[in-house]
């Protein structure tokens, strides 16, 4: 047994007071003579014995009263066997999991409300001088400070369900950073969560501090059936008014039971467009397709939904896109003859707006206004042009390179090296037919209804050969030589022809295959193809192509429902990026508008990390690094006392107070009633 306030034990010297009083207040009996004392002698002796016993009992009661009263103030306790008891101020951090899964219920109610109540019990088990941190999945700035008891109770009450998902490693890092600001020896961390498997990552063991007392409070949840719509995407990269669309959806069944005839509804601009039903096996993912036709409006707001369940946050998936009105293409021309073939292709497609410049008339400032740039038979390439082309491709543009006999190969290879493309070695005259076409490339998506291997391919008379095999071949000759290849470079793509469109190189320019190759590249080169964004991430939107660019004088608004924000924006490499505010926590369509005119619809969805409701048990938590942690089950009812005992040992001061009162009462009873017995 140990004492929290051992200095109080000096007050035990007060025990001498009742002893001294007892010694000085002993009654002296008077002798009384009787004529006949034979009968009284025995009574006298008996009375003296009773008197002495009474005084001894009173003395003992007074001594024990003082003894236990002093013990009560000295706070005796029996140290916990689980950990050493530390003296001084306790700094305690409490993580309350407020993710979507904590909105589920068990037999004791909603998990989040239980967690908040448990957090209050934890606080009540500590002393008034102790300090506390309340942290949740929001990782809010206000959580980076220690609070008093009263402030902590208020912070707990403010916790609400949040769409943010946070790995446990991030929580511990935030706790460690706050602990580093104080000179604390008594550091405690509590984690109140259902502990889904996806909250644990491999870095957890690296951030755990052995000097911190870790406590795990986990909530048991019965398995439920949860279905999530994980993502959607299109087969075709460009969207036109009244165009037939093929929307691909990914749906997951996170339960042990198979799902039959699950209805999935597609809405477009708040109107129902299509309804399909699918079957999904247990613990499986299903990819299916929805066919529909676009509306005529420019902005398209789409939503795929299933019927709401116990965990409804992942039952809808929002997406947004725009009907293309024009696609700007820049042709930098070095050969008027071959240029005519390119221009004739684009004249058949009204949506493509072609601009033609000679190499001597290049305006670098205009490059960001085009989706695709075509270098047609360059003779030489300056360092400035190479650097500018590298920048626009990195930002998401497409670049088509067509060499010729007059092209300076060292200069062209310098450009190719920039995009990590194998160099050209020499021009080879060897007439061959083209034979192999990579129809799986998205260039040809929707082009061939029934592709035939017996298709008549164009013939090449000469072509450039390279040092190494192409990274992604689109078109090959009979002998396997790649004559059209694609290379991804950051957000954009580079398409490299190994031949010129001049008739001296072959008949490719007059073949029907040229049409889809040149038409489709600009159509699939839109850098802003993202259909949706995830809430809680630092999202940014490239708005360089809008007709009325953002500036200090021309401000834009973001709105969702009744909420509005003036967005932050940045210019990076001549591109304007709009930053989506991190505080937006509502799924739906975020509208970008200027002067009451809607510019874009930005779809926001919740993180799907919590869709898979798989939980960790206590042994698994130990394996991930919490080997020395004390683990509690949330259903345990005597939580406050258990925490107090684990922190401060078995407290005995209440027992001492009770015993002190008992002996005080016994003294009164002895003085009043002893003589009657």
Keywords:
677 residues, 5 domains
Summarize the structure in words:
With 677 residues, the protein is α/β, with parallel strands linked by helices. It folds into five domains: 2-79 and 653-676, no CATH class; 90-211 and 635-648, no CATH class; 227-322, Immunoglobulins (Immunoglobulin-like, Sandwich), CATH 2.60.40; 327-523, 3-Layer(aba) Sandwich (Rossmann fold); 533-605, Immunoglobulin-like (Sandwich), CATH 2.60.40. The chain contains 13 helices and 34 strands. The strands form eight sheets. The protein has a nine-stranded mixed sheet.
CATH class value of the largest domain = Alpha Beta
Number of helices: 13
Rg measurement, Å: 41 Å
Structural class of the secondary structure composition?
alpha/beta
Apparent shape:
elongated
| Largest beta sheet: strand ordering | 17-16-18-19-24-23-22-20-21
Distance between the termini: 39 Å
- CATH fold-level name of the largest domain: Rossmann fold
What is the topological layout?
Blueprint: E1 2-3, H1 16-24, H2 40-74, E2 76-78, E3 90-96, E4 105-106, E5 109-110, H3 111-124, E6 131-135, H4 149-157, H5 168-179, E7 186-193, H6 204-207, E8 213-218, E9 227-234, E10 244-253, E11 259-268, E12 271-280, E13 284-293, E14 299-305, E15 316-322, E16 327-333, H7 336-346, E17 352-358, E18 372-376, H8 383-394, E19 398-402, H9 409-418, E20 424-437, E21 459-466, E22 473-477, E23 482-489, E24 492-497, H10 514-523, E25 533-534, E26 540-542, E27 557-560, E28 563-565, E29 568-572, E30 575-579, E31 588-594, E32 597-605, H11 618-623, E33 630-633, H12 639-648, E34 650-651, H13 653-673
Parallel strand pairs: 3-6, 3-7, 7-8, 8-33, 16-17, 16-18, 18-19, 19-24, 25-32
Antiparallel strand pairs: 1-2, 2-34, 4-5, 9-10, 10-13, 11-12, 11-14, 14-15, 20-21, 20-22, 22-23, 23-24, 26-30, 27-28, 27-31, 29-30, 31-32
Helix pairs in contact: 1-2, 2-13, 3-4, 3-12
């Amino acid at each position: 047994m140990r004492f929290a306030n051992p200095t109080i034990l000096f007050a035990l010297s007060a025990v001498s007071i009742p002893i001294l009083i007892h010694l000085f207040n002993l009654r002296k009996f008077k002798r009384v003579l009787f004529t006949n004392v034979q009968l009284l002698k025995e009574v006298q002796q008996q009375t003296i014995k009773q008197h002495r016993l009474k005084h001894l009992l009173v003395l003992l009661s007074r001594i024990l009263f003082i003894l236990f009263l002093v013990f009560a103030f000295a706070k005796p306790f029996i140290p916990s066997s689980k950990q050493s008891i530390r003296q001084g101020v306790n700094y305690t951090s409490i993580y309350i999991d407020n993710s979507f899964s904590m909105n589920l219920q068990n037999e004791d109610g909603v998990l989040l409300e239980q967690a908040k109540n448990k957090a209050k019990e934890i606080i009540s088990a500590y002393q008034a001088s102790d300090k506390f941190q309340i942290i949740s999945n929001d990782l809010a700035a206000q959580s980076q400070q220690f609070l008093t008891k009263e402030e902590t109770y208020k912070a707990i009450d403010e916790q609400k369900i949040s769409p943010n998902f946070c790995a446990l490693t991030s929580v511990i890092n935030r706790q460690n950073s706050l602990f580093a600001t104080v000179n604390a020896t008594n550091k405690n961390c509590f984690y109140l969560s259902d502990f889904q498997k996806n909250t644990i990552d491999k870095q957890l063991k690296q951030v755990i501090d052995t000097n911190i007392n870790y406590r795990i409070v986990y909530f048991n949840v019965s398995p439920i059936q949860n279905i999530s719509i994980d993502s959607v995407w299109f087969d075709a990269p460009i969207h036109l008014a009244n165009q037939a669309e093929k929307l691909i959806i990914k749906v997951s069944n996170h339960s042990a039971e198979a799902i039959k005839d699950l209805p999935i509804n597609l809405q477009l601009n708040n109107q129902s467009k299509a309804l399909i039903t699918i079957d999904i096996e247990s613990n499986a993912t299903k990819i299916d397709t929805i066919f529909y036709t676009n509306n005529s409006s420019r902005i398209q707001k789409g939503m795929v939904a299933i019927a709401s369940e116990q965990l409804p946050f992942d039952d809808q998936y929002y997406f947004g896109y725009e009907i293309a009105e024009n696609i700007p293409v820049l042709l930098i021309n070095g050969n008027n003859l071959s240029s005519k073939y390119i221009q004739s292709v684009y004249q058949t497609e009204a949506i493509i707006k072609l601009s033609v410049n000679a190499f001597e008339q290049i305006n670098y400032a205009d490059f960001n206004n085009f989706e695709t740039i075509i270098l047609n038979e360059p003779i030489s390439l300056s360092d400035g042009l190479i650097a500018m082309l590298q920048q626009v491709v990195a930002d998401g543009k497409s670049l088509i390179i067509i060499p010729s006999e007059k092209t300076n190969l060292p200069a062209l290879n310098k450009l190719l090296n920039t995009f990590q493309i194998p160099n050209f070695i020499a021009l080879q005259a060897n007439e061959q037919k083209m034979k192999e076409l990579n129809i799986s490339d998205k260039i040809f998506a929707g082009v061939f209804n029934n592709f035939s291997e017996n298709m008549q391919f164009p013939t090449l008379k000469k072509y450039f050969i390279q040092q190494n095999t192409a990274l992604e071949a689109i078109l090959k000759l009979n002998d396997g030589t790649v004559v059209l290849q694609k290379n991804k470079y950051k957000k954009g793509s580079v398409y490299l022809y190994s031949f010129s469109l001049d008739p001296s190189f072959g008949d490719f320019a007059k073949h029907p295959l040229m049409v889809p190759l040149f038409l489709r590249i600009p159509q699939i080169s839109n850098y802003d193809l993202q259909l949706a964004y995830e809430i809680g991430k630092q999202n940014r939107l490239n708005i360089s192509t809008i007709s009325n660019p953002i500036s200090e004088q021309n401000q834009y608004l973001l709105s969702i429902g009744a909420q509005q924000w003036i967005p932050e924006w940045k210019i990076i490499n001549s591109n304007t990026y709009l930053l989506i505010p991190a505080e937006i926590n509502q799924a739906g369509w975020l509208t970008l508008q200027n002067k009451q005119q809607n510019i874009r619809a930005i779809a926001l969805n919740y993180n799907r990390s919590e869709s898979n409701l798989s939980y960790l048990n206590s042994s698994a938590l130990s394996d991930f690094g919490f080997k020395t942690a004390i683990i509690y089950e949330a259903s345990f009812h005597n939580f406050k006392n258990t925490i107090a005992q684990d922190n401060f040992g078995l407290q005995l001061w209440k027992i001492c107070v009770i015993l002190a009162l008992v002996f005080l009462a016994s003294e009164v009873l002895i003085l009043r009633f002893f003589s009657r017995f």
